[in-house]
Amino acid sequence: MALKERIVITGVGLTSPNGNNLQEFRHALLNNVSGVQKFETRHMGEVLAGVCDFDELKYQKRKERRRGTRAGSISIYCGHELFRDAGLLTEESSKLGNTEEIGVYIGITEHGNVETENEVWNLGQFDNDPKYWSHHHNPRTVANNPAGELCLNLGIVGPHMTVGAACAAGNYALISAIHALTMGDIKYAVAGGVSEAIHTFGIFASFNSQGALATLTEEQTDPTKASRPFDKNRNGIVCSEGGCLYLLETYDQAIARGAKIYAEIVGYGVNTDATDFVLPNSDRQIECMQQALKRADLTPDQIDIVNAHATGTPLGDEQEARAIQTVFGDFDSVHINATKGFIGHCMGAAGALELAGNLPAFEDGFVHPTMNFEEFDDKCRFRGLVSGGPKKVDDIQTIANMSSGMLGINTVIIVKKLETENHKPSNLFRGA
Q1: E-assigned strands of 213-334?
Q2: Three-state secondary-structure class, residue 12
Q3: What does the pLDDT profile of the chain (432 residues) look like in tens digits?
Q4: How far apart, in whole angstroms, are the C-alpha atoms of residue 339 and residue 228?
Q5: Cβ atoms of residues 405 and 107 within 8 Å
Q6: By the 8 A CB rule, do 189 and 248 touch?
């Protein structure tokens, strides 16, 4: 079940609620910096959200941004950043070569709701006269929009697609890219996830109707404390926007071009609960973890960091806690963390961003903590959770990244530190 090709990560581009590149993001995770704030949205008024603050016009013109979408602008920003990080774009050479060799695979939870809500609202200002409906609406709302906008911006003529896998989409896009690379369809893959979710009031309204939206209380009035993965006082999801895209390529190609290598992807798992629209199934999550371990040819005690999905919902965290304890609970060497306490739930971007937040651990030797965790409840308890502050760990070699979503989709990605005789990762993060 091992991967047919050795696939490595050679570039990272991201924007998160608490950082616009990997160095900023990692610094925030090691220094307890939250990206959650109060946010005004149509019909709902003041809610809590993780809001990104990147320069939309850094890599696109105003006319292009007006015609496109927030999700597209996130994709474009992350795409340019990753190609520069990977050394394929520079200040001297601002155009990609051989773009037919590049495939783009971007995960989304949903797309088009923001644009449709905006058009319906705008129509209401003009007595619902359909002549005021934007002729840009169709290209803005087609499912492949975020990946397509990136290709238009960079002139990429290879295959592109979005991967609709709810909140597991960031991980699933990486899996899709692995398949394309191992089949030899492309030489480089852009893969990860994006989310513009906070710009639709509907996502807040729906979670609120489910009783799953995080709120402030009389006892807790600080927005940065609202997202509380696994904590006894957790009360729901903080919706967020963001994006993280990776450049993937084969190990041999990366070594041949002298690329900086962040990690090797050594295993993955994907399956479906088939039991409920919303509530996760811990048995299927266990099977997904075991599938990924088998493909990676690793045992649970050989995993150094497990990044949990951990949405902060009472029942969701309870199911995941059971799965984590079942697979990893016997081993002191396994360290568990969750990222959503810092940034909220970035939906389709969640898995990709949360993996990125842990990648520098291979170099700086720290496991970032689970922000806002103070105490387990009796139904949500497992071994190995890192909280309070970063934990220094000798020789971190492996990371398992868990990501699940509605309609029962589960994914796990396992990455490994890579050191060879003629190539070592950079010193970029040492001492961070």
Answers
A1: 239-240, 242-250, 263-272, 305-308
A2: strand
A3: 567 789 999 999 999 999 999 999 999 999 999 999 999 999 999 999 999 999 999 999 999 999 999 999 999 999 999 999 999 998 777 789 899 999 999 999 999 999 999 999 999 999 999 999 999 999 999 999 999 999 999 999 999 999 999 999 999 999 999 999 999 999 999 999 999 999 999 999 999 999 999 999 888 899 999 999 999 999 999 999 999 999 999 999 999 999 999 999 999 999 999 999 999 999 999 999 999 999 999 999 999 999 999 999 999 999 999 999 999 999 999 999 999 999 999 999 999 999 999 999 999 999 999 999 999 999 999 999 999 999 999 999 999 999 999 999 999 999 999 976 444 444 433 333
A4: 10
A5: no
A6: yes
Across the chain, which distance is largest between two alpha carbons, in Å? 70
Is this prediction's pTM over 0.90?
A: yes
SS3 164: strand
Q: How far is CA 133 from CA 43, 72, 120, in A?
A: 21, 20, 8
Among 214, 172, 242, 193, smallest CA distance to 317 is for: 214
Q: Do domains 8-256 and 268-416 have the same CATH topology?
A: yes
Is domain 268-416 classified as CATH 3.40.47.10? yes
Q: Which residues contact 92 (CB under 8 A, 6 or more apart)?
A: none
Task: Tell me how far the alpha carbon of residue 360 is from its chain's centroid.
Answer: 15
Distance of CA 387 to the CA centre of its chain: 21
CA atoms within 13 A on the CB side of 430: 4
Q: How does strand 239-240 pair with strand 391-392?
A: unpaired
Nearest to 247 by CA among 23, 87, 426, 10: 10
Tokens standing for residue 37: 């704030």
- Which class is domain 8-256? alpha beta
Q: 390: which 2 tokens?
A: 């970063």
- Domains of the chain, residue spans: 8-256, 268-416
